[in-house]
Design a protein that fits this description.
This protein has 167 residues and is α/β, with parallel strands linked by helices. It has helices spanning 3-14, 18-43, 74-87, 101-113, 131-136, 149-161; strands at 46-47, 56-57, 64-68, 91-95, 121-123, 140-145. The strands form 2 sheets. The chain has a 4-stranded parallel beta sheet with strand order 5-4-3-6. A two-stranded antiparallel sheet has the order 1-2. The two termini are 32 Å apart.
Amino acid sequence: AEKHDLAQLMALEMGKPIREGVPEVEKAAFCAEFYADNAEKFLARDTIESDASLSYVCYQPLGTLLGILPWNAPLWLAFRYLAPALMAGNTCVMKHDPHVPQTAQAIANAFVKAGAPENIMVNLPLETPEVELAIRDPRIMAVSFTGSGGAGRKVAEIAGSEIKPCV
């Protein structure tokens, strides 16, 4: 419903043309709908053939995940992280790029407007030097990162030193 406002916000913050911003908002909404519509199927227990009486894979949430996101597709990349993570029963902390603070807050506000449970998704407006503390926080159980290879190596190194899954 607010796709034009969100596209305008991305245009102001990071220069995305409106004609690209509106489809990005629509793509993010589709992503959320896709995971909501398919959650039961994606999370269904997989029975595995074995010599045991019952062998299966059960998908369980990890806890609170930290998503570290870049500026260049602020809605799409946020929902590419948020939708499957939330579908799987996790809570999410979103550390968006400092160049898109209003867009990041608009995403958080959308969860409030939609009536999502309080703190299911938290916007964490940090500067880059503070990210290490967030990764090391014992409440963060895993990290999702989208960005450059160099930054990805640093994130993976920190997450690895804490024995936290990182993608």
